[in-house]
């Protein structure tokens, strides 16, 4: 248990270090116009660490992932992320936020982010006095993804992959979440290139 937790801390620390290393390149941008806000919604798959709360094996959960990103600079923004994943007698929710760094190309973008917030896990096991057990705890994680621009307003999120560490029911869970869906862009930041 301690080994998994310290490994998770090292992974998040390395991700944040790489993120901070990339920030200075934001000043090297060419003048261009990019969306100020991105709104994402789509399907999420989660490989949930169910043995940590007494299940015999890991659980494959399906659900949703939504997030909103507001850009402070062309490459640097803040993301608010929410997800809900469901399986047999399990409901897993995360509500997190954190910095996001984006590398834009002609019709696509790659991004990485670090997320911090809360997890809420619910186990539906009927008992004489209650219908379920629920626990709320801290969560953090990180990951990234790739978006392909379909038009000026819409992109397809080809994939987003995140490692999520949470602490509920008095124990730690280390999960992997993969998402896909659509992104809507609005507002603008920067200036159009002069021809």
Task: Write a structural description.
The structure is a single chain. With 195 residues, the chain is mostly beta strands. Helices cover 11% and strands 62% of the residues. The chain has a single domain (2-22, 30-190), classed as Porin, CATH 2.40.160.20. The longest helix has 21 residues, at 2-22. The radius of gyration is 18 Å and the shape is elongated. The model is unreliable at 22-31 (pLDDT under 50).
Largest sheet: 8 strands, antiparallel, barrel
Strands of the largest sheet, in order across it? 2-3-4-5-6-7-8-9
The secondary-structure element order is HEEEEEEEEEE
Helix content: 10-25%
CATH class, named Mainly Beta
Structural domains: how many? 1
Count of DSSP E strands?
10
- Global outline: elongated
Mean pLDDT: 85
CATH topology: Porin
Number of DSSP helical runs = 1
End-to-end span in angstroms?
Answer: 58 Å
Query: Mind telling me which CATH architecture this is?
Result: Beta Barrel
Structure classification:
mainly beta
Percentage of β-strand residues: over 45%
Radius of gyration: 18 Å
Q: What labels describe this entry?
A:
mainly beta, 195 residues, two-stranded antiparallel ribbon, eight-stranded antiparallel beta barrel, Porin
In short:
With 195 residues, this protein is mostly beta strands.
List the helices and strands and how they pair.
Blueprint: H1 2-22, E1 33-34, E2 37-48, E3 59-71, E4 76-87, E5 90-104, E6 108-123, E7 133-149, E8 154-168, E9 171-186, E10 189-190
Antiparallel strand pairs: 1-10, 2-3, 2-9, 3-4, 4-5, 5-6, 6-7, 7-8, 8-9
């Amino acid at each position: 248990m301690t080994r998994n937790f310290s490994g998770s801390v090292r992974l998040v620390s390395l991700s944040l270090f790489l993120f901070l290393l990339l920030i200075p390149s934001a000043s090297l941008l060419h003048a261009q116009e990019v969306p100020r806000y991105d709104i994402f919604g789509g399907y999420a798959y989660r490989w949930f660490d169910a043995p940590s709360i007494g299940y015999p094996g890991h659980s494959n959960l399906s659900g949703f992932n939504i997030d909103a990103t507001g850009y402070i600079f062309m490459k640097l923004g803040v993301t608010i992320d929410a997800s809900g994943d469901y399986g047999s007698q399990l409901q897993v929710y995360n509500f997190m936020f954190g910095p996001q760094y984006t590398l834009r190309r002609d019709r696509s973008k790659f991004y990485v982010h670090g997320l911090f917030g809360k997890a809420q896990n619910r186990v539906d096991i009927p008992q004489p006095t209650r219908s379920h057990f629920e626990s709320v705890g801290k969560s953090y994680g990180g990951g990234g993804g790739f978006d392909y621009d379909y038009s000026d307003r819409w992109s397809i999120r080809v994939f987003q992959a995140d490692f999520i560490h949470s602490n509920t029911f008095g124990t730690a869970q280390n999960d992997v979440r993969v998402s896909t869906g659509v992104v809507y862009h609005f507002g603008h930041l920067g200036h159009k290139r002069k021809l």
